[in-house]
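Worked problem 6 (solution included).
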Amino acid sequence: MRNQLLTGYILHQKPYGESRSLVYLFSEESGVVHGIGKKNLPLFVPIQFFGNGKNSLKTFSQSQILQNHIILTGQSLYAGMYLNEILQKLLPVEEPFAEIWQAYQQCLANMATLFVKPAQSPHDMTRLKWHLRRFENVLFEQLGYGFDFAKDALGDLIALSQRYQYQLQQGFMPVLPLDKPDIALTGEQLLTWYQCLQDETSFNQMMQQDFDLAKQLVNSISAMHRHLMDNLLNYQTLQSRELWQQLTQYQ
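Solution. The predicted structure is:
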């Protein structure tokens, strides 16, 4: 990399000497890039750098903040930290992911509208989970672990009344009547979720017409996503998740 212009978001940074930081950058041009740059750069704001270096650790210079950073408050702040941590852990280095880049920007913008006083809504937590699950769906697809909502793991069409359990690298496996898995969703839930992913209007209508149903669906999908995410992370501890859980306990 020689004097390459990079536009990116800081995923993580830690001190490197007295005036510099080791920076984990998620860039539009090259995906995740590691480098040495200016100290105390803001999170959740696009920043431009010039990247130089032949080794895996680049030098970032001439940093420029492109816009006022998005303000994430309350639960959204911890959700933003969660996004940064999973990208840092899951994405390969110096490989661009245009779809994930776009989904990340959109997710940050959506989360910034939540938990804003005095207009905070009691539905904000469900909407926050919805935005996170939409982002994760793009992430899973780009990493080769996308969900097949048309057919189950046996090659049969998803049936509305059938219960399914997601199995890594196989898909949605039908659950036998006497089985009681920890996480199972009906075919109707899976197809409703797929429709919501294709058209956000469907989810917004569900939130307005039957909030309890929307909340139940989001919570069920969240459990399934966590199972897949934990597998991809090889069950590594997420610091952002632990901090988030501590916040929830003391509220």
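Discussion: The domain at 74-249 is CATH 1.20.1440.120 (de novo design (two linked rop proteins)).
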